[in-house]
């Protein structure tokens, strides 16, 4: 993993670049850093904690310079104790603080599930709202970086399955900042998964093509200062009439690239938050197009696509003109050498789009 | 920082660990020098009254369970009363927080919380302290800084670390009293928390209520080190070995431990050796120990009988003490009536308090 991490760090801690129009452009790491910086500034109860987040500035540099700027009581390193980190954060939150723990990779979150599921998600319910757990657990997730099975997973459906948690996944620098601010301000526990493949640039899914940079992408324009994007509002990436594509994180960009290259008039929705889900936006789009395709990188069985598929079937059945298509990772551990066979890339998405159009 | 004297906090955890002004035995030595608290007669009467309230409450809870009025799980504190009363009578309730596991009725009663709302929580009624949504194992009180009541063995300890961190961060002078049992003492997250607590010099007293059995498993069948107070050594946390059947000894130990923490000395690990007379829960036939063993504790080590004897030596009459018992039985009977006759929560409560936000 260290090679990839080093490469990501190679992106260094730019404060962003100004484009010809004078707009500030940030990559996703910088946008996340900006959101954390602003929230540390605005709210003395916000605390950033995690493995390597302080002195080192985070394995992907998301917390770079924050300790220097805000001090060691606000931004500090923890031992490698994921269960302990999240448990301590739940206690801090119950007492009135607003901790933002980082779990270095989503693959490392499993020791913390006891705390996330039994404590963070349930504290409010069983105390009849006496105590809340307003923590935001940030964690890089997803593959496409040759990380193998312990640095590539997409475990979002484990969390969407737990009542009492919110799950947020941004797909652009602009959204990452606004959603992270909203997540930190939210009084519920939020799992904030950052698609690490697109930290430094959008990804078309063509791994053999040159890496793109965020600088040319419209949504890398990130305004200065505070703004928030409400949780539970999907984003229409592009409008279309032939089919609805539901995606989040990295897969938004892959689906968009395929639709563009195949000249398919697909309407692509970036869900942004899985819980709460913007079901109204989903219904509206599917009712319009009559066809629905779901794309995610996580394994297929009991993945979030299964939930989406059930919801669309329940709510839009009489508008559907073809069976719903799901394009997902396979039901295997995330592979190392066969990463691009596993990854639901342009070929599989393209074939599914063709099938849906024929259907 | 509350612990300005000690330089260690989360903010500067990398302070030189080699400097060694630390003795793992200093608190135990202080405790051995003066094991018992010099209580006034009035204080002793209070201890007697509070311990007796717990016992009579628990006896009644056992009866209600037998009648089917309390469902599910119900873990009685009978035999362990001196631990909660000895410790919590030494707290500063305006500043200090408490968190415990599932055997929590006694810790709630130790605050002087109305037994009615506790009993009504056991019977799952809307008037219960957590609206009946928590039940026996999950009770909370923001008013008293009581953070529960946690059904997952050992999970509350990490939350206690977070509460202590919040005390330190807010510089409010409070400490956290985090209880767990001899069974929970073998959970990994307990030691993650001890490491962080010592690393950051958190104001926390870890209390192992060693009642000799983790459900049906005797400590020597599950624990390589059965002297639990020694288990902080690896984290440079001083330990105290306390007779948990003697309320004055527990209180004496509490004074030493709390003073150490308030002086900025960092965490303390206190083992209170105690004994539960009843089964682990109501469904426990207790075949893992002999009747003689239980009877031996009741006959020779009972904490309530012991303080009763001391009070009588000081001139209280049998009748004085019987009058107190009579009052307590009345309070408990009223609590039981209340718990039996209040309504259950409305069905709509099923969906309240899941998430703060509605969607």
What would a concise description of this structure say?
The complex is a heterodimer of chains A (359) and B (359). By secondary structure, chain A is α/β, with parallel strands linked by helices.
Q: List the total number of helices of chain A.
A: 13
Q: What structural class do the secondary elements of chain B suggest?
A: alpha/beta
| SSE order of chain B | HHHEHHHEHEEEHEHEHHH
Mean pLDDT of chain A: 94
Describe the overall structure.
The complex is a heterodimer of chains A (359) and B (359). Chain A is an alpha/beta fold and 359 residues long. Chain A has 2 domains: 2-220, Thiamin diphosphate (ThDP)-binding fold, Pyr/PP domains (Rossmann fold, 3-Layer(aba) Sandwich), CATH 3.40.50.970; 235-358, Rossmann fold. In chain A, 35% of the residues lie in helices and 17% in strands. In chain A, the strands form 4 sheets. Chain A has a 5-stranded mixed sheet, with helices on both faces. Chain A has a 4-stranded mixed sheet with strand order 6-8-7-12. Chain B has 359 residues and is α/β, with parallel strands linked by helices. A 5-stranded parallel sheet of chain B has the order 1-2-3-7-6, sandwiched between helices. In chain B, helix 9 links the parallel strand 6 (239-243) and strand 7 (268-273). The model of chain B is unreliable at 1-6 and 17-21 (pLDDT under 50). At the A-B interface, helix 4, helix 5 and helix 6 of A face helix 6 and helix 7 of B. Chain A: Its cofactor is thiamine diphosphate. Chain A: This is 3-methyl-2-oxobutanoate dehydrogenase (2-methylpropanoyl-transferring). Chain A: It holds the Pfam family Transketolase_C. Chain A: Residues 26-201 form the Transketolase-like pyrimidine-binding domain.
